[in-house]
């Protein structure tokens, strides 16, 4: 056992914990998470849930056109919408929960935040396949343009759609006595990331990090981010984290402005359980935000367990729309391209030089 001499400064002392429970994180039964596959439903979709951003005029027109097309082309399909004041005419009210109506397909109209909101509606159990249309400011998770909705629906209803299972995180909170905060079934399902941060406090957070019950380090920083591969291009990327392909199953740990320059981001396998415990010496509580939603305030001694959720978000790929392959073309053929490769080039302008950016601006004028 490593011993610390009494004369050493307190900064270098190993943290002590009176309870061993934190070294034995609770594991949930996880089923294998496939990556990209063809969606083979038992039957064609019989119910569709529309999730949309605030109803601006373009959104209103798009929803009206979508509903008219569904009612005309797929007359037996029921269309639902969240219980909001702006529910569109012709849609039934849908409320999340254990007694909610069964949904076979989720259709989102908006930006990336709309998909995150759709994911949060299914915090208990599996998420139906998600067909996403771009009508927002960000589009990293949005493979389809709204003008393509008829063709996209045809692909889904004909059983030719391919899906990418985007991993989610299951987060469970504990108080300083290691008693679960909330009841069973209250685990938060996170599609992008969970972030612990110092909020408005001028003091840094002190957070102990455990991986599968083993103490990794004591982090002194503005906060910590644990993200999915999908969330690796969000807050984690801005904090200096790596870009991870969404077909991988992994947990990404990224510090926010750490005091130590040697504290670098880490990537763990999806079988890992990460425990973040607010240190007893922390001068500030930690605010918790999950996919941009403020959820908890963790005080010293309180903790959160983070692990891979058994319920990913199945997102329908744009590569599902397969046209006849034109002759004498280079690169991947239709239906075989990687949406993610296209997106990091078009949206993130990955490794774009000053010259290529100048050419891009010139081409837009």
TrEMBL record:
One of its GO terms (biological process) is NADP+ biosynthetic process. The keyword Kinase applies. This is ATP-NAD kinase. InterPro entries: ATP-NAD_kinase_N (IPR017438), ATP-NAD_kinase_PpnK-typ_C (IPR017437), NAD/diacylglycerol_kinase_sf (IPR016064), NADK (IPR002504). The keyword NADP applies. Keywords: ATP-binding, Kinase, NAD, NADP, Nucleotide-binding, Transferase. GO terms for molecular function: ATP binding; NAD+ kinase activity. HAMAP family: NAD_kinase. Belongs to the NAD kinase family.
């Amino acid at each position: 056992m490593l011993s610390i001499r009494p004369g050493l400064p307190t900064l270098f002392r190993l943290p002590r914990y009176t309870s061993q429970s934190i070294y034995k994180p609770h594991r949930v039964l996880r089923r294998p998470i496939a990556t990209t596959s063809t969606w083979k439903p038992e039957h064609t979709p019989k119910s569709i849930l529309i999730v949309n951003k605030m109803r601006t005029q373009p959104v209103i027109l798009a929803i009206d056109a979508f509903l008219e097309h569904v009612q005309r082309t797929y007359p037996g399909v029921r269309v639902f919408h969240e219980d909001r004041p702006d529910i569109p005419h012709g849609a039934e009210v849908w409320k999340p929960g254990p007694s909610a109506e069964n949904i076979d397909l989720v259709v989102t109209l908006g930006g990336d935040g709309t998909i995150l909101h759709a994911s949060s509606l299914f915090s208990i159990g599996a998420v139906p396949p998600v067909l996403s249309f771009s009508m927002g400011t960000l589009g990293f998770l949005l493979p389809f343009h709204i003008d393509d909705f008829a063709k996209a629906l045809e692909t889904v209803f004909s059983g030719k759609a391919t899906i990418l299972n985007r991993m989610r995180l299951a987060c469970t909170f504990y108080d300083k006595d290691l008693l679960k905060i909330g009841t069973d079934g209250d685990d938060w399902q996170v599609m992008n990331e969970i972030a612990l941060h110092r909020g408005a406090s001028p003091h840094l957070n002190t957070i102990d990090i455990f991986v599968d019950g083993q103490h990794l380090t004591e982090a002194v920083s503005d906060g910590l981010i644990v993200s999915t591969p999908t969330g690796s291009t969000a807050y984690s990327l801005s904090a200096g984290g790596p870009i991870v392909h969404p077909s991988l199953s992994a947990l990404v740990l990224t510090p926010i402005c750490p005091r130590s320059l040697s504290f670098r981001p880490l990537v763990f396998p999806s079988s890992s359980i990460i425990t973040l415990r607010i240190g007893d010496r922390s001068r500030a509580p930690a605010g918790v935000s999950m996919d941009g939603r403020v959820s908890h305030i963790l005080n010293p001694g309180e903790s959160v367990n983070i692990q891979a959720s058994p319920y990913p978000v199945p997102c329908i790929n744009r590569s599902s729309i397969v046209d006849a392959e034109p002759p004498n073309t280079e690169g991947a053929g239709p239906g075989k391209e990687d949406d993610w490769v296209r997106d990091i080039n078009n949206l993130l302008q990955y490794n774009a030089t000053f010259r290529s950016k100048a050419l891009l601006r010139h081409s837009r004028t």
